[in-house]
Design a protein that fits this description.
The chain has 231 residues and is of the alpha+beta class. The chain has four helices and 17 strands. The chain is elongated.
């Protein structure tokens, strides 16, 4: 989801238990009101297909206890929206097309703000486009070394691979780029693998936008993007 003035999700403000506002999506409508996206905080960083989006409006109310007498606070317009419905409602409230439904960014899958080298890398990853003939995987330097040395790799970590004997891959290059970026941030190196969908063994759909595969063979790798070279 791409905004003319920024990405849909960067810095997050948790305004109440279970809810968040993506402050850097705050955009002024033709009416003069300010709107922003948000999400059920349990879904922050999850694939957009899982929904849970909010559209917020910034309210200004009289409060004699604050300087200037006006208190600003976020109130939701509508919650529990799909990605598509959130964009449609936002653009309707703005009175113009401020967000593009068909675009995504790495930041849409992060719950923190990339800065410095991470910002430079993120901006270059955002230029990549997903292809229907490909799936993608973000891996650490350690996983990449196994891939090059043994000719194949599968995940041994916890989290979203705890219920499979293999690896997850994504059909959204920016979602996979998020995992590569986190690996780079945490270990000093990360790789984004561009994979030929037809060359992956036992590719099975899992949660929306993700697939499980028994292992990733080296000959399925169409392209390798080393994040340290994107600085």
């Amino acid at each position: 989801m791409e905004e003319t003035q920024g990405s849909m999700k960067t810095f997050i403000e948790y305004i109440s238990e279970g809810a968040s506002v993506y402050q850097k999506t705050a955009t002024k409508a033709k009416s003069g009101k300010t709107y922003a996206f948000g999400r059920d905080s349990r879904l922050d960083g999850r694939p957009k297909e899982e929904g849970g989006y909010y559209v917020w409006v910034l309210k200004q109310n009289y409060d004699g206890k604050v300087r200037g007498g006006i208190r600003s606070s976020w109130a939701y317009v509508k919650k529990d929206l799909s990605y598509k419905d959130a964009v449609k409602l936002m653009n309707k409230r703005l009175g113009y097309k401020g967000f593009d439904l068909n675009e995504s960014k790495v930041e849409d899958f992060l719950i923190w703000e990339p800065e410095g080298d991470l910002r430079t890398i993120t901006e270059k990853l955002n230029k990549l486009k997903s292809s229907k003939s490909e799936v993608y995987r973000g891996i650490s330097g350690a996983e990449y070394n196994v891939l090059t040395r043994k000719g194949a790799v599968k995940s041994k970590g916890k989290g979203n691979t705890s219920d499979i004997d293999g690896s997850y891959v994504a059909d959204n290059v920016h979602l996979a780029g998020r995992f590569a970026l986190v690996a780079y941030r945490d270990t000093g190196e990360g790789y984004l693998l561009v994979l030929d969908r037809k060359k992956l063994p036992n590719l099975e759909p899992r949660d929306p936008g993700n697939y499980a595969v028994s292992h990733i063979p080296k000959d399925a790798v169409k392209k390798t993007i080393q994040l340290s070279k994107l600085k």
